[in-house]
Structures are given as structure tokens and as C-alpha cells.
Amino acid sequence: MTSTLAKPDTSRERIAELFDLAQDILRRARARGADQCELSLSESRGLNVAVRMGEVETVEFTRDRGLALTVYFRDGAAGLRKASASSADLSSSGLEATIDQACAIARYTEADPLAGLADAERMAARIDDFDRWHPWAIDADAAVALGIACETAGREADPRISNSEGASVNSSESLAVYANSHGFVGGERGTSHSIACSLIAGRGDGMQRDDWYTLGLASTDLESPEAVGRRAAERVLRRLDPRRAPTGSFPVLFSAEQARGLIGNLLGAVSGGAQYRESSFLLGAAGQRIFPDWFALRERPHLTRGLRSSSYDAEGVATAESNLVTGGTLQRYLLDAYSARKLGLRSTGNAGGVFNLEASLGHDDLPTLLHGMGRGLYVTELMGQGVNPVTGDYSRGAAGFWVENGEIAYPVDEITIAGNLRQMYLALEAVGSEIDPRSHVRTGPMLIGAMTVAGAMADPGG
């Protein structure tokens, strides 16, 4: 891909400077009487280009930095009073003001016996970068050229493509340092690049929209802009002339993109916050079988070039490879230090979320899965937020394709699918072999044995 000469890489030197700054801020906070303190320092820069109908719409250069500081003051036997302040001003006076604000706020917060840093012995002893730093030496002109090439390839793929919502090229670099008064200081650097295209096909009331994007830590991980445009064209063309699906109970196959959402619902339900607030449909479910016995989810935070690889979580706790689900049974919750204390458990190193979660994959590709389901719905798009996190009731607008005799018969839209997540997880019949690599949650298509599909009319054969 077109690029300019790379500038000298000073990221390691800048992280070292942020290390020194972090330790200085901690010293100042402790000097003001804070018993414990922690902070994150971040810097990022990026290039974002958008084109539409062959013309430049926006060229944006971004540069951000920030400090987020949390202090804890002991209030006798009552525990620690916690307060936070943040700022984008890293000048000496700006830092002084931020520290003063955090310490002042702490005078008015209620003491909590469970508040405080994660345990010192849990801090990461080794920090790796996992090959996540791949700056893209690209300027605005080159990015515009890639965006136009992407959109042109899509628009010229078929005369039925009548319009475009445009193409974009994005590149970003970020540095982050976390430090706390245990003496832990950790630094990370990472890059992210993407090319995207969104097209419109058909005319009048028959218009349909679809898109495609490619994402990676390195520009060499990306699909070519022409391939992205053509894929967007293929996706929008296959949606033309949709019908309404029949109404009834049918197997539902979620594309890999949409299957990630089902796992996301699980992650929310097993988070420590949802557990101690008793706002989860999987309340107290650790040790229970919630999926078929062949299904597993494994967290792999130390993958080389993983989209979310890290040696430590947002509290400095060392991350480790471990199972979330094994043999269909939920092994643990996702806990930071506070939620672990609330539940009488131990932090799982998940402050800030999960790190590279992988579902167990089957051997069947998409055509084989469609053949196996026989008759039902293949979901490629979901709309709305119809998920109740307390009961697990699930009702979403959907679009995709109706499947007859194991093959895609026609596109469908304006339908609703409904069920209950706990029942849906147990009704999981297969996970396909083809993953969508554009997320740190990696899964193939997921086939649910039966869900309620509300379409145009009752199914005469149902």
C-alpha cells in the first residue's frame, strides 16, 4: 500500500518519559496525604480520512493525551475514601491542579472498607509488548488514494450499486502507562489500522445498504482496499429484493460478526459488577453448566499480535491464560479487585474487560452449517437493544437470509427474533470453523437450535 517514509520511532523513549512523570505524580499525591494512589497516562495520534463518490469529505489528524488519577485516603476503621480527577493538561501547573482536585474531592466521599488498590502481590512481574506496535507510514494524500480506490472498486462492481455512504482509512498509534503506589509501573504501546466501505444498491423503496471493513495492528494485516470495496458490493447486492420471513420457531444461525454479540451478553452477565449488584441472568452461575458440554471459552491475553494482548489489567494485576467456560460449565466470573472483595473472591485480572477470548470451533464451514440447519434463519444484522440483562430475555430486530433445504433461498428483513439467553446458550448446536478476526472476541458462526422468528405470517408447516 502507498506510504511515505517512516519517521523515527521514539515510542520507547516517550514511554520512559511517561514512566518518570507517573512516578512524580504519585509522589506528589502521597505528599498530600494519600494512603494509596493510582494513575493512567495516555497519548495517541491518528489519521482519519473519509471519501464519498470519489471526493474527499474529511481529513482529520488527531492528537490526544490525558491523565486519570485516583487517590485513596484512610478514614480510620471505616475504610478508604476514594476520589478521581482527570485532565488533558500535563503541564506542571495542570498536574498540580489535577492532584489538588482529586485530594479535595476525597474529603467529601464516603469511606468504603473494600476500596483500594488490587493486592500488591498480584502485580505483573513481567511486561511484554506482544508485537502490537506497527506504525503505518502513510500521509493524507496516500490515505485518500486508498479510500477512493476502495470506494471505486465497490461502486464499479455492479450497475445496481446506485450510491455510496463512502469509504474511510484510519490509522492510530497509542501509548499508555499505568502506575500505582505499590511501586508498579507498566507501559504499553499499540497501533490500529482499518479500511472501510459502505455502499447502497437498488433504487427508491428497494434500496439496501451494507458495508465491509478490514482491521489490523499492522497495515500488512489489512485486506487490499479493492478487496474491501468488492466485498462491500457483494454484501449489499445479495440483500436486494428482500422478503419477510415466516413466523414460527426455527433454527437461527448467527454470522460470526453477530455471534460475538451473544458472547458479549455472556461477558456482561458474568462481570463482577453484575454479580454483586444481583443484576444478572447468570447470577451465582459459576460451576453451573450453561452451554452444551462440548463448548469452551478460553482467555488468551499473551497472544503474539493479539488485538487485546496485555501482561496486566487496568489495575496492574498480572493476566494469565485461563478458561472462562470448560465442558459447557462456567468456571469463573470476570473480576476486578473491588468486585472480587464484594463477592469474597480473588481478582481474575479482568479489570477493564477480557483479553483475547476464543470460543471452541467446530469443523464445519458456513455451507455445511446451512446444510445442517435445513430450514431456518441466517442472521447477518441485528438492530435495537432488546436484551434484558437481569432476566436474559432477548428480542432483537434482524435481517439476513432465509434458508430452505440447507441453502440460502432469499434475503429477509424487518423481522424480530426472540428467546431467552440462558435457554439459547443451552440450545447451541454448533460453532462454525470460520472466525471473524476483527475482534478480540473470536468465534465462528453460532447455530441456535430454536428461536421465535416473527416475520410476515405464521409458518404453514410449523
The named CATH superfamily of the largest domain = PmbA/TldD superfamily
Per the CATH scheme, the topology name of the largest domain is PmbA/TldD fold
Q: Based on DSSP secondary structure assignment, what is the total number of beta strands?
A: 18
Count of domain modules: 2
CATH architecture label name of the largest domain:
2-Layer Sandwich
Average of the residue pLDDT scores: 95
The topology string of helices and strands comes to HEEEHHEEEHEHHEEEHEHEEEHEEEE
Q: Tell me, briefly, the overall form.
A: globular
Helix fraction bin: 10-25%
Reading off the top of the CATH hierarchy, the class of the largest domain is best stated as: Alpha Beta
Strand order across the largest sheet = 3-2-1-4-5-6
Query: Could you give the distance between the termini?
Result: 53 Å
Low-confidence stretches: none
Using only C-alpha atoms, the radius of gyration works out to: 25 Å
The number of helical runs is 9
Percentage of residues in strands: 35-45%
| Biggest pleated sheet | 6 strands, antiparallel
Supply the helix-strand structural class. alpha+beta
What does this entry look like structurally?
The chain has 462 residues and is an alpha+beta fold. The chain folds into 2 domains: 11-236, PmbA/TldD fold (2-Layer Sandwich), CATH 3.30.2290.10; 242-462, no CATH class. Helices cover 23% and strands 35% of the residues. The chain is globular and about 70 Å long. The N and C termini lie far apart (53 Å).
Write a brief structural summary.
With 462 residues, this protein is of the alpha+beta class.
